[in-house]
Amino acid sequence: MASEVVHVQGHIIDSLILPKVLDEIMDCSGTFEILDIRIGKRKTDTSTARLRIQADSHHRLQQILKRIARLGATPLYLKDVQLTRAPKDGVFPPAFYSTTNLPTDIRFRGRWRRVARIEMDCGVAVNPSTGAATCTALASVRKGDWVVCGAEGVKVTPLERARAAEVFQFMGSAVSSEKPKAQLIQRLAKEMRAIKRTRQHILLVLGPAVVHTGSGPYVERLIRAGYVDVLFAGNGLATHDIESALYGTSLGVQLDRGEPVKDGHDHHMRAINTIRNLGSIRNAVRRRVLKRGIMHACVTRRVPFVLSGSIRDDGPLPDVITDTISAQDAMRRFIPNVGMALMIASTLHSIATGNMLPATVKTVCVDINPSVVTKLSDRGTFQGIGIVSDTESFLRELTHALHV
Asked: How do residues 190-226 score in pLDDT, each as one tens digit?
């Protein structure tokens, strides 16, 4: 029978890390023996445990070790990470290590080295000369790059329960329309102020429903008050925002009356055509054609934005990046230093952004449909909290809580 002794430490009791490790071992048909355990007696004390794991084959044991490595359990007798060269541009070696969004270290030449720019579903490229390890997307790896293979020599640090109460523990990860939203939004506003005090960035991810529901002016207030450092969206959000600024409509519906306008169905195309004629959204602001709206606020407050295209886009606007890989790269450039991501009424862009965010980024997903919030969590952004709410009422209460 194959066996290995592993070690796990940290706030493994109150963060439920140790029970999860034991669950994984049993789910993979392994057995365990707790050789010793030391439990911290106070809130700030850490705990440690040493376990012997047994499985009926070496292959099954490796599967167990790979699963529990994602919970921070590492073999007692450490080995260096295994490296293999990438066979082609855009192709990892077959046994490549697939990353999580948790803080990750690799052991190289006897030293632990933190993997830079961690995100989920990527590989880890290592520079053998310097030992620098970088999270690398599949499309970015180049033939001959040294890539981490297998889970040996890889250490993942799971998220632990914070020692002080915060909004993310107040909510937990459960999604429900029964949560006390007013109290939650007050606490969220407090978190946003704290993020700004630490000079971290707040990322806003928006869907076009923000404009359809008449919530655009609240987003403008957040931008002008300095609570937005970067905006991710698609062609739809920008198009309907510009349509509302030029015609007062969104998808042909008068926003101040909620009534369709005659021949208003083509307003969004006329808005796109206007911006295409001027060359860019920034040019439209400089030429004073675009005088208000979310995109106007971004340009005038110098808040960078990334507009990513999709197959169903009309136009699109000239600022939209239609190449998917280029759009991902553009988004990744703004991820470092993001401390909070606020995703509102956007399914695809929220999931795409969630895939790029380290698990340490506080993530809030707001949507009227509970399945959107659940889907984001199911796709790996487990650290996010969900708020089931109408977009307009959420943003109205948030701006009120922030006094903007």
From this structure: 999 999 999 999 999 999 999 999 999 999 999 999 9
Are 205 and 346 within 8 A, CB to CB?
yes
3-state secondary structure the chain: CEEEEEEEEECCCCCCHHHHHHHHHHHCCCEEEEEEEECCCCCCCCEEEEEEEEECCHHHHHHHHHHHHCCCCEECCCCCCEEEECCECCECCCCECCCCCCCEEEEECCEEEEEECCCCCCEEEECCCCCCEEEECHHHCCCCCEEEECCCCEEECCCCCCCCCCHHHHHCCCCCCCCCHHHHHHHHHHHHHHHHHCCCEEEEEECCHHHHCCCHHHHHHHHHCCCCCEEEEEHHHHHHHHHHHHHCEECCEECCCCEECCCHHHHHHHHHHHHHHHCCHHHHHHCCCCCCCHHHHHHHCCCCEEEECCCCCCCCCCCEECCHHHHHHHHHCCCCCEEEEEEECCCHHHHHHHHHCCCCCEEEEEECCHHHHHHHHHCCCCCCEEEECCHHHHHHHHHHHHCC
- How far is residue 392's CA from residue 212's CA, in Å, rounded to a whole number? 9
The closest alpha carbon to 227, from 270, 269, 191, belongs to 191
Residue ranges for the chain with pLDDT beneath 70: 162-179, 377-383
- Residues 309-355 pLDDT 10s: 998 899 999 999 999 999 999 999 999 999 999 999 998 899 899 99
Q: What angle do CA 55, 56, 57 make, to 5 degrees?
A: 95
Give the number of residues written for the chain. Answer: 404
CA 397 to chain centre: 24
Q: Is residue 155 a contact partner of residue 107, using CB atoms and an 8 Å limit?
A: yes
Here the tokens at position 49 are 């445990």
List, in order, residues 6 or more apart from 253 with CB less than 8 Å away.
212, 259, 260, 261, 264
- CA 8 – CA 2 distance, rounded (Å): 20
Dihedral angle, C-alpha 297, 300, 303, 307, nearest 10 °: 70
Residue 365 phi/psi, 5-degree rounding, is -115, 125
Q: What is the pTM of this model?
A: 0.84
